[in-house]
Amino acid sequence: MNGLIEVSDPGLGNSLQDLGRFGYRHMGIAVSGCVDPILARCANALAGNPPECACVEVRGAGPALTVRQGRVRAALAGDVSATLLRAGGEEREIEAWRSVSLDPGDELRVGFVAGGAAYVAVSGGFATPLQLGSRSVYRRAEIGEPVAAGLRIPCAALPHRGSHEYSADPWRHEEGPFRVMLGPQDDHFKPEAIAALLGGEYRATKESDRMGARFEGAALAHLTPASADIVSDGTVPGAIQVPGNGQPIILLADCQTAGGYPKIATVISADLPRLAQLRPGQAIRFQAVDGPQARQALRALETRWKWWAYGMVYGPPGMEINKDWRAGWPLFEDAWRQGE
Amino acid sequence: METADPLGAPRLLPFGDAAWTVEFGARIDPALHGRVLGLLEAVERAREKEPFDGVVDLMPTFRSLTVCYDPRVCDGERLGEALLALARTTGAVRREGRLWRLPVCFDAEFAPDLDDVAQTKGLTREAVIDLLLGTVFQVYMIAFMPGFPYMGGLPEALEMPRLKSPRKAVPARSLAVAGSMCAVYPWESPGGWRLLGRTPVPLFSARDEAPSLLASGDRVNWRAVGREEFTALEAAAQAGRLPRESLLAGENPS
Predict the structure, then answer these.
(1) If exposure means fewest CB atoms within 10 Å of the residue's CB, which of A246, A286, B55, B114 is most exposed?
(2) Closest partner CB to A28 (pick from B26, B77, B144)
(3) Is the same domain home to A43 and A138?
(4) Are B77 and B121 in a shared domain?
(5) Residue range of the domain that includes A287
(6) To probe the interface with A, which of B1, B17, B40 has the most A CB atoms within 10 Å?
């Protein structure tokens, strides 16, 4: 039997996201996908899923999800909690980083996410119809199924009534400077601008969404006023574009595919997930790296994630995390091998 | 700032650890765009083979090709070298894209900037329309938003800067001009281009196998329609009864 989930309250600022929609950028379609794919992968692992399953990305008031059919496992990852309302009337708080099994009539009311993004995963993933190869919602073009009240989403039901659950330590993103590779248009800036970017602090502002995040700090001076405009060329998530006012905007998953501002540098893949978790007022620094260093950083992130996953346990609810990493591993070793 | 000789060496620009941009120049120029399309086709042909097998997205623009790859499976440096080598050896192609003949209605309601453009340029309303209809526009790229075509070839007599204060909401399917470009907004969106008409044809449909109506290399010629035909075509398109082929030149003589 399949599971079925109904959105009983859509909340605010939530969207279904998976690893993204590739192969359509030449049509102006953003790649989309989770802004923090590492955290989404954690939520999926805790629900027993491979990384490519779609999650609900929560960026504000979380949704309320009611199980309509089947026994469904749910898990939260990130700085978020939830209230579980059992069909029988029992109510209890649900923490992130451990799964919970829901029966028909049970409602999971996901709480508020004050900054960045948190993820809700369910067994088998939220199986809305694929559009252009992905379930990610790209609101600007009405692609993907929006989280709306009454929407019914299939997922996988658990085959038995066992009471075991997954749990793990909270994932902690690395700290330290955000690593960037200079370019593609670093030659449109004065040397002082490069020095300012790599030497100063930049503060996250409130202006942040799935398309990009504005930062404040020492103005990054273009070589000439004319170099603040370029004939539009390609953009990617992580690009640090600098409009005429010299204040950087870092593009994220839903960024447009091309733009007319020069990009002074690009945040590397390993540091993009934590970029999406910054809160207004938080100050960050940038550090320049080269290609091999970026590759090393990505490998280190993947290794760290693998160790996080090794530490996952599967047992009766309330069981302490005992660091017996073998317990959870075989269940999604296959998923890991598939990579992203 | 000129960064590359249009007929000379392309430049490989680092774009983080998951993309490269190959830049042929800094201008809007059919010759540069031809080289972009030449490289695009060459990479498409090579995609089965290492190191191009890690490529996940190709984004042609006026003057550059951005190549996105999966850094988990692809050696970025190797791909960069291979891209540059390919860019140096591939010539320009003139992609014989499709020639579209798309309906546009110039009713005052749809063309709030038509009188202003005419006045500024010392032309009559009709002369502006004739200039638009007499042009075959070249689609350089689809970007900014899904299906949004950047089309070159606007007659110099119609060149105007963007509005000083952009509109908060440009209605969907507005035909718009700015600088030497012509475009259509596929969706309602904020925008600073000047609005000269509206087409009943949807530029983008996520449910279609090829969601974007237009593609880089296509050409577009506008055909004026009255309000009645506009409404009929709009209804037909919404009901899914306006096949795209019927909009190709040659099959739609008028």
Answers:
(1) A246
(2) B144
(3) yes
(4) no
(5) 178-294
(6) B17
- How many other CB atoms are there within 10 angstroms of residue A101's CB atom? 18
Nearest to B18 among A142, A233, A236 (CB): A236
Distances, alpha carbon A100 to alpha carbons A120, A163, B224, in Å:
11, 9, 61
Same domain, B126 and B234: yes
Per the structure, the complete domain to which residue B135 belongs is given by: 99-247
Q: How far is A283 from chain B, CA to nearest CA, in Å?
A: 22
Q: Shortest Cα distance from B3 to chain A (angstroms)?
A: 9
Q: Which residues of B touch A230 (CB under 8 A)?
A: 26
Q: Are residues A38 and A78 in the same domain?
A: yes
Q: Is residue A242 part of a domain?
A: yes
Residues B32 and B139 in one domain: no
In this structure, is residue A310 part of a structural domain?
no
Asked if B188 is an interface residue toward chain A (Cβ–Cβ < 8 A), one would say no
- Which chain A residue lies closest to B64 (C-alpha atoms)? A233
CB < 8 Å from A in window 200-239 of B: 204, 206-207, 211-212, 215-216
- The pair of structure tokens assigned to A148 is 């709306």
Virtual torsion, Cα A140, A65, A35, A219, nearest 10 deg: 70
B13 closest CB neighbour out of A29, A183, A267: A183
CATH (domain of A187): 2.40.100.10
The SS3 of residue A2 is strand
**Total number of domains in chain B:** 2
**In terms of domains, do A149 and A182 share one?**
no
Contact by Cβ (8 Å): A219, A247:
yes
How far from A14 is each of A2, A9, A110, A148, B68, CA to CA, in Å? 24, 11, 11, 9, 27
Backbone angles phi, psi at A108, to 5 degrees: -105, 110
Q: What angle do CA A260, A201, A272 make, to 5 degrees?
A: 60
Q: Are residues A165 and A85 in the same domain?
A: yes
- On whether residue B201 sits in a domain, the answer given is yes
User: Exposed, middle or buried: residue B220 (CB in 10 Å: 0-12, 13-18, 19+)?
Assistant: buried
- Same-domain check for residues A145 and A17: yes
B22 part of contact set with chain A, CB < 8 Å: no
- In contact, A283 and B69? CB cutoff 8 Å: no
Structural domain total, chain A: 2
A184 with A329, same domain?
A: no
Q: Is residue A68 in a domain?
A: yes
What is the full per-residue pLDDT of chain A (340 aa) written as tens digits?
A: 699 999 999 999 999 999 999 999 999 999 999 999 999 999 999 999 999 999 999 999 999 999 999 999 999 999 999 999 999 999 999 999 999 999 999 999 999 998 899 999 999 999 999 999 999 999 888 899 999 999 999 999 998 777 789 999 999 999 999 999 999 999 999 999 999 999 999 999 999 999 999 999 999 999 998 888 888 899 999 999 999 899 999 999 999 999 888 999 999 999 999 999 999 999 999 999 999 999 999 999 999 999 999 999 988 876 655 555 445 444 444 444 444 3
- Looking at residue B173, what DSSP letter applies? T
Q: Answer whether residue B174 is part of any domain.
A: yes
Residue B94 forms part of a structural domain: no
Q: Evaluate whether residue B211 is within a structural domain.
A: yes
